[in-house]
Design brief:
5 strands, UCP028069, 253 residues, 5-stranded antiparallel β-sheet, signal, alpha+beta, rod-shaped
Length: 253
């Protein structure tokens, strides 16, 4: 081989070796860049996944807020209805309060008339528990003059007294008290069959009297009514079972 050929071969060999070295470095650089791209892509995908997850959470939160808003709107409408109803009640109460003075001016005279009528009725009625009933009327008059008692309480007590009077007409009772017969006070057992009959029985059970409403006096009963009077008193006190008894009952005219 000539010198020129040897030199050319040497140069070509060096060129080939140099090219191989350059290609290997370039390939390595490409691998490194590709790896960086993969890492960057993975990070980008992770960011995308995180953003998607956050968007889903925000969507769920948004839907919850929308639902809560709708619920609050319905509830607010309901509360507004209640407030309007309460306001109507307040307005009604205010009108009643404004009329209290006027109502008082009408009720107080009415109560006095009711008490007077009650007293007159008791005086004209069968004298059942007479002392107790008259004392009740006096208490009502005291209540009317007591500034510490409200008008509503006065009204309640007057109505209660009327209710007690009403009950006397539908109940039987027996109680001990005093009666005046021909100027003499006698302690007796009273028996009343509503307002239909009022019987007085002496404590020794030897005499009996009946109230005569027409003549406003006591009338002594005959001996034929004595046993019945005794039985009536005992039945009213639940000492005997209720049964028929013979009593002088005035016929209705």
């Amino acid at each position: 081989m000539s010198k020129r050929t040897l030199i050319a071969s040497t140069v070509m060999g060096a060129f080939v070796l140099g090219s191989s070295a350059v290609s290997a470095d370039t390939l390595n650089d490409l691998h490194k860049e590709e790896a960086k791209i993969h890492v960057a892509a993975a990070k980008s995908q992770e960011k995308i996944d995180n953003l998607f997850q956050q968007s889903q959470e925000l969507l769920v939160e948004y839907r919850a807020v929308v639902d809560e808003t709708e619920n609050l709107k319905v509830y607010n409408d309901y509360v507004a209805t209640l407030v309007a109803d309460q306001q109507r009640g307040i307005d009604s109460l205010q009108r009643q309060i404004d009329q209290i003075d006027e109502t008082k001016r009408g009720i107080v005279p009415l109560l006095f008339r009711m008490i007077d009528s009650l007293e007159k009725f008791i005086d004209a009625d069968v004298p059942i528990k007479l002392a107790e009933r008259k004392a009740r009327v006096e208490r009502l008059r005291d209540v009317m003059g007591n500034s510490n008692v409200t008008v509503s309480e006065r009204f309640r007590q007057v109505i209660e007294a009327y209710q007690i009077e009403l009950d006397y007409g539908s109940k039987i009772s027996a109680y001990q008290g005093n009666m005046n017969y021909e100027g003499t006070d006698i302690t007796v057992d009273f028996f009343n069959l509503g307002r239909t009959a009022l019987i007085a029985l002496s404590l020794d059970q030897k005499n009996a009297w009946m109230w005569d409403t027409a003549n406003r006096t006591w009338v002594e009963l005959g001996s034929e009514y004595l046993e019945s009077s005794i039985a009536a008193v005992r039945m009213a006190r639940k000492q005997l079972p209720v049964n028929l008894v013979k009593l002088p009952i005035p016929a209705a005219e």
